[in-house]
Amino acid sequence: MNFPILSTLIFLPLISSFFILLSKDKTSNISSIYISLFSSIATFFLSLFLWYSLDLNVSEFQFVEEKSWVNNFIKFKLGIDGISILFIVLTTLITPICIISCVNSVKVRVKEFLIAILILETFMIGVFCSLDLVIFYLFFEAGLIPMFLIIGVWGGPRRVYSAFKFFLFTLLGSVLMLVAIIVIYWLTGTTDITQIYEIKIPKDYQNILWLAFFSSFAVKMPMWPVHTWLPDAHVEAPTAGSVILAAILLKMAGYGFLRFSIPMFPIASEYFTPLIYTLSIIAIIYTSLVALMQDDMKKLIAYSSVAHMGYVTLGIFTLTKQGIEGSIYQMLSHGLISAALFLCVGVVYDRLHSRMISTYGGLVNYIPKYSFLFLIFALAALGLPGTSGFLGEFLVLTGTFKKSYLAAMLATFGVVLGAAYMLWLTKRVIFGVTNNSEIKKMDDVNKSEIVMLITLAFLILFFGFYPLPLMETFSVSVNSLITNYETALISN
Asked: Is 67 helix (H, G, I), strand (E, B) or coil?
């Protein structure tokens, strides 16, 4: 295909943001919303076409675009495989949902908010398409800027503190990765990812370079103990900001582990596996216990995200087919479930302007449609069979049992804790006693809210019962990743 489809996919939201900037909206913001919604839906369908056109029997990168950028030193190189395409589709799906949600939740500077969302979409898609280390780093770090503004301008009372905490944590973690990229160029003479795979990084340098990349990915994931920025960011961010943060931005680190840490530093990945197991188990158990103690719905869901990301890192570094496939499925599933849960919090927050669990109770008696959808998402979050939340955790635990019985048993205990905090939340909010008279005046979900929530509920249930489309998409790429990893270990 000669048409630059990946460049089009990346820059279509950015071009649309310029049209919004030039629009003459003053009070209604109608044209800005229509432009952003049309653009994001067009980007989504373009990503579906890309998925349909992908050859699932080939492990090599496809639709590759390559142009010299900085005097042949850096190439603007793009390409996708069976792993990256699914994260691209998830990104393009979540973005229009966020735009629809802002109609109810964002009341000031709507035009600027939509521009920030579209620019952020460009950077997120760019991360999953990049085949050059420098280009990846630029997209990876550029996403901090619009998210910093989304939290800092449209967030809650402590938005400035949370925005700076988010920015500094993630930026400082990535400085070492930039140094590592420079070292890799010095060692290999290139920043082209595919060439680095073939050249191989000398084993004497792998441990220190692995740690440099790990410093960035661990913060972005986030892994314990560098997770403390996440609850603050979620609590203060507007609903759309929380949705993008949980559904997409956290997954960029997991994708980084799969794209860089394992294939580039296989010996180091093997060496540091016990460290990853330890941090992942602590994250799963500790943050699940912390989630049980929360009285803020957003904080509870934020801590649950840290626990779920613990399963992701655990599965990736089992370095088994089941573990890696489970971690990818878990990331995709969590992207849908966490987005839905934060949207549910946004729905009731828009009505009563409170995220406190104690404010609510007995919602099923007054807003039954909302309560039914919330229950589906809560059950998916705890990994109920028949929802997409089950299969990812099951495969991760299967892969972990092959490598460490102790790690698998401790991680399984985390599943029990996950059920505890989600059922506890559901009992208090949906089925509890109604002590607040304002609840009786609440309206059930409106048309835009029902579209968003039913779309996510359908996908969560569909991929819970029929995971084959996703599994077939990334299976060959995962097989190739494991084969290359094992070959690298044998040769060293």
From this structure: strand
